[in-house]
Design goal:
One of its GO terms (molecular function) is orotate phosphoribosyltransferase activity. InterPro entries: OPRT, Orotate_PRibTrfase_bac, PRTase-like, PRTase_dom. Keywords: Glycosyltransferase, Magnesium, Pyrimidine biosynthesis, Transferase. With 192 residues, this protein is an alpha/beta fold. It has a single domain, classed as Rossmann fold (3-Layer(aba) Sandwich). The protein is 31% helix and 28% strand. Strands 5-4-3-6-7-8 form a six-stranded mixed sheet. It has a two-stranded antiparallel sheet with strand order 1-2. A hairpin with a 2-residue loop joins strand 4 and strand 5. Helix 3 crosses helix 4. The radius of gyration is 16 Å and the shape is globular. The protein starts with a helix and ends in a 12-residue tail after the last helix. The chain binds 1-O-pyrophosphono-5-O-phosphono-alpha-D-ribofuranose (PRP), orotic acid and magnesium ion. 1-O-pyrophosphono-5-O-phosphono-alpha-D-ribofuranose binds next to strand 6 and helix 5.
């Protein structure tokens, strides 16, 4: 599946939003990929995640013990991708702002692949890696449906993206005037 097909699915679902958005990193952007509007459709989610699972299988040699999704956005794609990989899916969720593996135990040395929805700065993946490494897991790769950095983000492990789609993002104190003129909204769940 190529980038045009992935973006086609997002557009068809009405998931490519335009306005003024506060991203989880604090950056501001005129475009927000509202993945929830894609993941509400099982058929669309299946097509995307089956293709992502195929890319992961090609890129990751050896056994994968778990797929880990960072909540909330990573929950559905991690689960659906894990189904195609034939491995269990678990998740990290925020407790006091920090990602924690609150509901599961993993053995020391477990080989895990993180599956995210969207990557912008890679911050959420790096936080997930920190949490998993503290527990003794080996993060062999990370994967996402759309990489908004188009390959520029370094998360410290190989990042497998189903699609790369570069979207502008600006620090809050350096907004272009057309963006500054629109009231900002924050769709994600960090800090709520
Ligand atoms: O690469 P980054 O700069 O970290 O941005 C991407 C992250 O932002 C979104 O999560 P968010 O924290 O907004 O909440 P959500 O998972 O509930 O959507 C998205 O799900 C990714 O986790
Ligand atoms: O960077 C983000 O927070 C982000 C961007 C985006 O397009 N979609 C999303 O869910 N999060
Ligand atoms: Mg998220």
């Amino acid at each position: 599946m190529n980038t045009d097909e992935v973006l086609g699915i997002f557009r068809e679902a009405g998931a490519v939003l335009e306005g003024h958005f506060i991203l989880t990193s604090g950056l501001r952007s005129p475009v927000f990929l509202q993945k929830a509007r894609v993941f509400m459709h099982a058929d669309k989610t299946e097509r995307l995640c089956k293709a992502l699972a195929g890319k992961i299988r090609k890129a990751v040699p050896g056994k994968i013990d778990y797929v880990v999704g960072p909540a909330i956005g990573g929950l559905i794609p991690a689960y659906e991708t894990s189904r195609h990989l034939g491995v269990p899916a678990i998740w990290v969720e925020r407790e006091g702002g920090e990602f924690r593996l609150r509901r599961f135990e993993i053995a020391e040395g477990a080989r895990v692949v993180i599956v995210e929805d969207i990557v912008t700065t890679g911050l959420s993946i790096r936080e997930t890696i920190d949490c998993l490494r503290e527990l003794g897991a080996e993060v062999v790769a990370a994967a996402c449906i759309i990489d908004r950095s188009a390959g520029k983000t370094d998360v410290g492990v190989p990042l497998i993206a189903l699609a790369e789609y570069e979207v502008p993002a600006y620090p809050a104190d350096r907004l272009p005037p057309e963006l500054a003129a629109i009231p900002a909204v924050k769709p994600g769940s960090r800090n709520i």
